[in-house]
Design brief:
Layout lengths: L1 H12 L9 H42 L2 H18 L12 H74 L1
Length: 171
């Protein structure tokens, strides 16, 4: 690829020369163009991701700031707007008490729903764990019963073997 790029550069420097490309040269030219397109797309994606990341960080910062900080920020934005656009007096925008109460109610409702969902998931998980534990205990109990039965069968066979041996010895 380096040789091709060097050759192409030399051909461009020679003015008035009509160069015919072979199949290999044409393929290398296509690859070069695709690499350039890919690089442009990659840079565009990087810029887009940087913008999205910056916007997300700003949204997080704004979401976590205190109400007083929000008011200060909005006031400074309004001051900047007033400096840029000298216009008649602007009325200050303020949220009414009703809006604040509604937002608080909505937030509490959302929080309650979220808490309920978490509790439901925890209960489902506990129920599944209890069921699994119950199955395990049943399996363990069955194994113990089988072991006891095997022990009893072994004891019975040993007793019958001993009694047979005693009969043989007594004769």
């Amino acid at each position: 690829m380096k040789d091709f790029l060097k050759k192409e550069s030399e051909e461009k420097k020679q003015s008035g020369v009509d160069v015919e490309y072979g199949e290999l040269d044409q393929t290398l030219q296509d690859i070069k163009e695709r690499m350039a397109e890919f690089e442009e797309l990659r840079k565009g994606e990087e810029q887009k991701q940087k913008k999205e990341k910056a916007a997300a960080e700003e949204m997080r910062r704004q979401a976590t700031e205190k109400l007083s900080e929000t008011k200060k920020r909005k006031a400074s934005l309004e001051d900047n707007d007033e400096d840029d656009n000298i216009s008649p007096r602007k009325t200050k925008k303020s949220t009414s008490m009703v809006d604040v109460v509604q937002q608080t109610i909505q937030l509490k409702k959302w929080q309650q729903e979220h808490d309920d969902e978490i509790k439901k998931r925890e209960l489902d998980l506990r129920a599944a764990e209890m069921q699994q534990q119950q199955i395990f205990q049943q399996t363990l109990l069955q194994q113990q019963q089988q072991f006891q039965q095997q022990q009893q069968a072994l004891n019975m066979s040993m007793i019958s073997g001993i009694s047979e041996l005693l009969k043989v010895i007594k004769k």
